[in-house]
Structure formats: structure tokens, C-alpha cells
Design goal:
Jelly Rolls; 5-stranded antiparallel sheet
Length: about 130
């Protein structure tokens, strides 16, 4: 682990990558949501996601998702329950669980999202709730 930061260590065959995710910034301007892929394999995919306002309610039929809040705060809905989330929170989202988030403050929410198995973006199913 790098001093004062969160690191992501990825092992691929004999290669590894260490990334201080606290220092990662979006590469360009964005309106609401920006996603940057970190790593992926057949078993899992990891992303940094920045959210300025909200993520519409959706679920994944075939994927489990783990979210770790790096910066910001918000209100996350999982199924019929809502939870206040903030820096340092770990959220486990079983497959099939509808989930959404609304950012609480002017500061952008920044999270690590890890999906298992490999996630290519097609297993995102929006509900009628916002």
C-alpha cells in the first residue's frame, strides 16, 4: 500500500500493477457519470466511477457487484432499503438486487466498483424507478 492511499494490486500471469486510485482523475469533462476501467479477467472487472448527481436504478442478472466509496457521500438504495453512504463504506450488491445512488453534496462521488464475473456493460437492466 502506498502511504496515505488506497492501492489496487492486480496479478496477471507474472505481471502486476499498482495504482493509487486516490490520485486518479477523470480524463475529460462529463455531465453525470464517468467510468474508467481498471482491470479485467474472465473472473472479474474493476472500475473507478465518478458520479456528479445520480445513478438510475438498475440490476445485474448475472453479476455480483462490490462498491467501495473513495470520496463523497450519497444515498444508496438497495432493493427497498436506503442507506447513507460516505468515504470508506463498502457495499456488497448480490446479483438481481435493484440499486441506485443519489449524490448528497456538490462534491463528486468517487467509487471503486468490482463486478464478478467479467463485466462488459451489457448486464445492466434499468427499472422503472428513479
Amino acid at each position: 500500500m502506498l502511504a496515505g492511499g488506497i492501492c489496487v494490486i492486480t496479478m496477471v500471469a507474472q505481471a502486476q500493477r499498482i495504482e493509487n486510485v486516490l490520485q486518479l482523475l477523470p480524463e475529460d469533462q462529463f455531465e453525470n457519470i464517468k467510468v474508467k476501467g481498471l482491470d479485467n479477467s474472465d473472473d472479474a472487472s474493476s472500475f473507478i466511477i465518478w458520479v456528479k448527481d445520480h445513478v438510475r436504478e438498475h440490476y445485474h442478472k448475472e453479476h455480483t457487484e462490490v462498491v467501495y466509496v473513495i470520496e463523497g457521500s450519497g444515498m444508496m438504495t438497495l432493493g427497498n432499503d436506503s442507506y447513507s453512504i460516505e468515504k470508506g463504506d463498502y457495499i456488497f450488491i448480490p446479483r438481481g438486487t435493484p440499486h441506485s445512488v443519489r449524490v448528497n453534496e456538490e462534491n463528486t462521488l468517487k467509487v471503486i466498483s468490482i463486478q464478478t464475473p467479467h463485466f462488459d456493460g451489457t448486464d445492466r437492466h434499468f427499472t422503472n424507478r428513479d
